[in-house]
């Protein structure tokens, strides 16, 4: 028996941790970090064994059978899913260890670890799902966990608002995914929803499903990915979601949940390959999102919001890679991004934990107080900026090379995004860690070992994990898809240009924020309107509010008034009429013979009038 056959056990470890933490409650407070970490560690060990075994396996059983309809649930182990299992469980385990220090003083730490464990279970279940229906169930459960964790500090109005915004906005994308599942159920032979069946039906455009329907299904699947992975125009929830605890930003909004959209497209990639229109849509939306978010990051002042817009931008790069047909480059960047962005968020949490500030205008000189955190943050920044030989350089180069092969415009957009990425990371690093210590930096001190340890491990991976796929080593692409055609061609010219552009971005940042020979403030002052527009995220939130939220509220207010004065009015009128009739008849039943006699006479008169009227009418 292979380890792949036991892969169904992987999500059960964090599920057991969640049930244990929920059952024991606050009395289990001291052991919450141990239980939470143990659940993720069990999943990590088995995931590594499954990946090392390299055996693909699938098993399922019938769930619902009636009138010829059969729905099944099961699990499937492929090279892609085994890699995702390792990434999710590994980052989750490190976050659980880190949180033992970061959340130490929180009274609801048991609830926190319970939510995290439930999320890890949901994400691992999503990865292992062998069909679209089962994936959709876990997809929604992941969204619920995100709502709970973003709004964990519910006493803060900002956290409650962010949780509701994340839940509602992602539901828009989820509606598209649900429609895609329903269309697949309708058009697939035997109503099959499993990924193997989808592969067989849509591979090579077999003609079983009409091309227009194929494009529609692919675009609806992409709509779901746009919501979860924060692509334009549904990216607006992700920056606000930074109101949750920083370890959650590292886990959900950097390494796992936001990558679910990319993973979904990879799992259904044959759908997109069958529709050139869908592929182009994914590529251009991804490229636009990457550039849009990078420009917004340049004008943010909150450490976590800068990293949030950076996440949106990097997810755009992954979508760009998928749109130009390079699944390997997308998965490669997903993997490296999980390491260096989780590192950056945890390092940001370390400085916030020490300085109790996260506005870069109030920070400065933390490098002299927190040398280890500064060094680790620097590794993550260099990896994100695409500086060789750090991991981000290799994965971003793979995307740029694929983009150049597809269309020069996409390559140019990707290259400009790389320049801006290096520039905003230089701005963030130099303003926070360089220079003389600010008032906020004076009392700051290095974080405890329980927080530093996970960051060191992530820094090592951020530095060296890119070597799994280089021009001299195509192990990842060959292993991932078992297909020689899947390997990407790295152009030496692209490597040189991308490295030079990234270094140029860092150099401009150094001139602006260390040497002070360039004054960004004077440039912003020359175009205050544009500067303010970018700082506010191009007012896309305001556009949504004007076009969707306000009309919807007006519709809701109108419906409320109709319900109160029309529907309820009719009900109240009916009740009043019945009550009045009851009072009138009760007045007649007073025990007086005269009253009964008058009533009898009146009744006789009514009967005579009615009968006379009927005769005249007829």
Brief write-up:
The chain has 618 residues and is mostly helical. The chain is 72% helix and 3% strand. The protein has 25 helices and two strands.
Summarize the main sheet.
Answer: 2 strands, antiparallel
Give the number of DSSP strands.
Answer: 2
Distance between the termini: 91 Å
H-E order: HHEEHHHHHHHHHHHHHHHHHHHHHHH
Q: Round the Cα radius of gyration to an integer and report it.
A: 30 Å
Number of helices: 25
Residue-averaged pLDDT, rounded?
A: 89
Strands of the largest sheet, in order across it?
1-2
Report the sheet-strand fraction. Answer: under 5%
| Overall form | globular
Structural class comes to: mainly alpha
Helix share, percent: over 70%
Q: Low-confidence stretches at least 5 residues in length (pLDDT < 50)? A: none
Keywords:
single chain, 618 residues, 2 strands, mainly alpha
Structure description:
The protein has 25 helices and two strands. The chain has helices spanning 12-24, 32-53, 79-102, 109-128, 132-150, 157-187, 195-202, 211-228, 237-240, 246-255, 260-267, 269-273, 276-297, 303-323, 327-355, 371-385, 391-406, 408-433, 449-464, 475-481, 492-515, 520-526, 528-535, 540-588, 593-617, and strands at 57-66, 69-77. Helix 3 packs antiparallel against helix 4. The model has no long low-confidence stretch (mean pLDDT 89).
């Amino acid at each position: 028996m292979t380890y792949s056959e036991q892969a169904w056990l992987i999500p059960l470890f964090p599920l057991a941790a969640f049930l244990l933490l929920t059952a024991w409650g606050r009395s289990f407070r001291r052991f919450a970090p141990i239980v939470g970490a143990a659940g993720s560690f069990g999943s990590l060990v088995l995931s590594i064994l499954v990946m090392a075994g390299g055996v693909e396996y699938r098993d399922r059983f019938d769930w619902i059978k009636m009138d010829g309809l059969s729905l099944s649930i099961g699990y499937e182990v492929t090279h892609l899913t085994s890699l995702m299992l390792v990434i999710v469980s590994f980052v989750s385990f490190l976050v659980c260890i880190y949180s033992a220090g970061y959340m130490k003083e929180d009274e609801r730490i048991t609830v926190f670890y319970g939510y995290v464990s439930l999320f890890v279970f949901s994400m691992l279940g999503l990865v292992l799902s062998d069909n679209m229906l089962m994936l959709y169930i876990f997809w929604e459960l992941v969204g619920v966990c995100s709502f709970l964790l973003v709004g964990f500090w519910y006493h803060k109005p900002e956290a409650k608002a962010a949780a509701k915004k994340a839940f509602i906005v992602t539901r828009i994308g989820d509606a598209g995914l649900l429609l895609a599942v329903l269309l697949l159920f309708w058009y697939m032979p035997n109503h099959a929803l499993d990924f193997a069946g989808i592969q067989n039906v849509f591979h090579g455009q077999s003609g079983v499903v009409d091309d227009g329907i194929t494009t529609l299904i692919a675009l609806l699947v992409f709509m779901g990915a746009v919501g979860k992975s924060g692509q334009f125009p549904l990216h607006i929830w992700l920056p606000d979601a930074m109101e949750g605890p920083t370890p959650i930003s590292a886990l959900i909004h950097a390494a796992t949940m936001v990558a679910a959209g990319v993973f979904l497209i990879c799992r259904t990639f044959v759908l997109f390959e069958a529709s050139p229109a869908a592929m182009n849509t994914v590529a251009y939306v991804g490229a636009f999102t990457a550039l849009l978010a990078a420009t917004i990051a340049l004008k943010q002042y909150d450490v976590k919001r800068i990293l949030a817009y950076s996440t949106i931008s990097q997810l755009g790069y992954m979508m760009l890679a998928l749109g130009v047909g390079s699944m390997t480059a997308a998965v490669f960047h997903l993997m490296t991004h999980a390491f260096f962005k989780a590192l950056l968020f945890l390092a940001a949490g370390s400085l916030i934990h020490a300085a109790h500030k996260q506005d870069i205008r109030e920070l400065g000189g933390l490098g002299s107080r927190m040398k280890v955190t500064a060094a680790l943050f620097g590794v993550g920044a260099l990896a994100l900026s695409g500086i060789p030989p750090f991991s981000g350089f290799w994965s971003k180069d793979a995307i740029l090379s694929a983009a150049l092969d597809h269309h020069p415009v996409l390559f140019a957009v990707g290259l400009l995004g790389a320049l801006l990425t290096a520039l905003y990371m230089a701005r963030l690093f130099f303003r926070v860690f360089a220079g003389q210590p600010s008032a906020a930096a004076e009392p700051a001190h290095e974080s405890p070992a329980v927080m530093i340890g996970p960051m060191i491990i992530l820094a090592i991976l951020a530095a060296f994990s890119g070597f799994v796929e280089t021009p001299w080593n195509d192990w990842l692409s060959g292993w991932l898809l078992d297909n020689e055609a899947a390997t990407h061609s790295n152009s030496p010219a692209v490597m040189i240009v991308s490295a030079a552009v990234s270094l140029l971005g860092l150099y401009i940042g150094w001139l602006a924020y260390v040497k002070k020979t360039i004054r960004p403030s004077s440039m912003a002052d020359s175009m205050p309107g544009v500067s303010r527009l970018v700082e506010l995220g191009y007012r896309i939130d305001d556009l949504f509010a004007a076009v969707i939220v306000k009309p919807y509220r007006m519709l809701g207010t109108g419906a409320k008034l109709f319900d109160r004065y029309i529907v309820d009015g009719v009900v109240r009128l009916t009740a009043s009429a019945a009550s009045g009739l009851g009072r009138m008849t009760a007045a007649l039943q007073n025990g007086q013979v005269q009253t009964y006699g008058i009533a009898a006479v009146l009744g006789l008169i009514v009967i005579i009038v009615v009968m006379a009227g009927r005769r005249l009418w007829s």
